[in-house]
Design brief:
four-stranded antiparallel beta sheet; globular; 249 residues; 39% helix; six-stranded mixed beta sheet; 10 strands
């Protein structure tokens, strides 16, 4: 933790507030994410974890506060500037968000159509698609349709798509939700391998303790819209605070 504090954050969330009507989801929430770490946001269902991660890339706009990603304040960015920043940030949606009408190949090519020139795609798209699929062990699915894939395979393909631009940051929204325990462990170990290969920084939204144990370097507990606790999983397990203990009982 001391070593992290000496580094410059790659993501900073400062005094962020977000409400939906009378539902105050984030209340003066602050956190820093440091280069190369896997940071997990742990909280109950409906606690605001997914809202927070979407605020980080401005899919949801905050009511008050500041967010800085890769030295760039995200509030007030023009759309082309925001698109450029998002190219540096991979996002694995909870639902996978694959296009059912496209093959696996076309799904992975989709970000390249947005962020690469026609010349770049002509010379490099095939190799980029194959490398990303190979990284998740699914090169053989390149010409399959999403409906031909199992739940775990869809998650891997979605991860491959988030990797194809070689992002500096990867955001995971409940990456193991809906998966059986064996597949959940496989996805969790894959996330660690990906982080090491790409030297990426990861923010992982989860309440799956097995996934958190495998992936986390540090855990922030989101309780009542605040950063209630910030420590390693091992340290949090030893806490005598009843609001922390209930997550591990």
């Amino acid at each position: 933790m001391v070593e992290l504090a000496m580094k410059k954050p790659i993501i900073e969330v400062r005094h962020v507030n977000k409400s939906f009507g009378d539902n105050h989801v984030l209340k003066d929430f602050s956190m820093s994410v440091y280069p190369g770490e896997n940071l997990v946001i742990l909280g109950k269902s409906g606690s605001g974890k997914s809202v927070l991660i979407k605020c980080i890339i401005n899919l949801i706009q905050v009511d008050r506060g500041d967010i800085v990603v890769l030295d760039t304040p995200i509030q007030g960015l023009e759309q082309d500037e925001l698109d450029g920043l998002r190219a540096e940030v991979g996002f694995l949606f909870q639902s996978n968000a694959l296009y059912d009408s496209m093959t696996v190949r076309k799904n992975l090519e989709f970000p390249l159509r947005i962020h690469w020139t026609k010349e770049q795609r002509a010379s490099g798209a095939e190799a980029a698609v194959r490398e990303a699929l190979d990284d998740v062990g699914l090169l053989h699915t390149i010409d399959m349709m999403p409906q031909q894939l199992s739940g775990g395979m869809k998650k891997r393909v979605a991860l491959a798509r988030s990797l194809i631009l070689k992002p500096k940051v990867i955001l995971y929204d409940e990456p193991t939700t809906g998966l059986d325990p064996i597949t959940s462990r496989e996805i969790s170990h894959l996330m660690v391998r990906v982080q090491k290969k790409y030297n990426a920084t990861s923010v992982i939204i989860s309440h799956d303790l097995n996934c958190i144990e495998i992936t986390s370097d540090r855990v922030i507990m989101l309780i009542d819209g605040t950063c209630y606790a910030d420590d390693t999983l091992a340290a949090l397990r030893k806490s005598e605070d009843p609001r922390i203990k209930e997550f591990f009982e």
